[in-house]
């Protein structure tokens, strides 16, 4: 997620996750029926809404080529997400994201150059 996307609302982030997943697995999902389970009930409303933001409308148009339905799962029914949200993160406040980005090796270092 880039810095601009980090500023999206929760609903936009949820929709972005669906768009990203469907685009990433497009070849597998294009001719198949799919079910999207979400704990964010606003997504079902967004697909029926006609006067949404331009960004959301663009994403809805992208998703119209797929055959899927959105099923809302309540927090109590969504055991995995409920459990994961309650776990304590042992690495919380240990690493500074800026520090990680500065010390992480660039991908270009791993490239091999070949001269003929």
Task: Describe what you observe in this structure.
This protein has one domain. It is 47% helix and 10% strand. It has helices at residues 3-6, 10-24, 26-29, 42-48, 54-63, 79-86, 97-103, and strands at residues 33-38, 67-72. The chain is globular.
Output the helix-strand order.
HHHEHHEHH
The radius of gyration computed from the alpha-carbon positions, rounded to a whole number of angstroms, is: 19 Å
The multimeric state of the shown protein is: single chain
Instruction: Estimate the global geometry from the Cα principal axes.
Output: globular
Widest sheet: strand ordering: 1-2
**Kindly state the mean pLDDT as a whole number?**
77
User: How many DSSP-defined strands?
Assistant: 2
Helix content percent band: 40-55%
Strand-helix topology:
Blueprint: H1 3-6, H2 10-24, H3 26-29, E1 33-38, H4 42-48, H5 54-63, E2 67-72, H6 79-86, H7 97-103
Parallel strand pairs: 1-2
Helix pairs in contact: 2-5
Domain Reverse transcriptase RNase H-like: 1-66
Keywords: Endonuclease, Hydrolase, Nuclease, Nucleotidyltransferase, RNA-directed DNA polymerase, Transferase
Protein name: Reverse transcriptase domain-containing protein
What's this entry about, in short?
The chain has 116 residues and is mainly alpha-helical. 47% of the residues lie in helices and 10% in strands. It has one domain (3-110).
């Amino acid at each position: 997620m880039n810095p601009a996307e980090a500023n999206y609302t929760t609903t936009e982030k949820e929709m972005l996750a669906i768009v990203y997943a469907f685009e990433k697995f497009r070849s597998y999902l294009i001719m198949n029926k799919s079910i999207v389970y979400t704990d964010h009930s606003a997504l079902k409303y967004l697909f029926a809404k006609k006067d949404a933001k331009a960004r959301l409308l663009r994403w809805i148009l992208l998703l119209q080529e797929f055959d899927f339905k959105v099923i809302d799962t309540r927090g109590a029914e969504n055991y995995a997400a409920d459990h994961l949200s309650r776990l304590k993160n042992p690495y919380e406040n240990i690493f500074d994201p800026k520090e990680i980005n500065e010390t992480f090796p660039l991908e270009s270092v791993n490239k091999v150059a070949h001269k003929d």
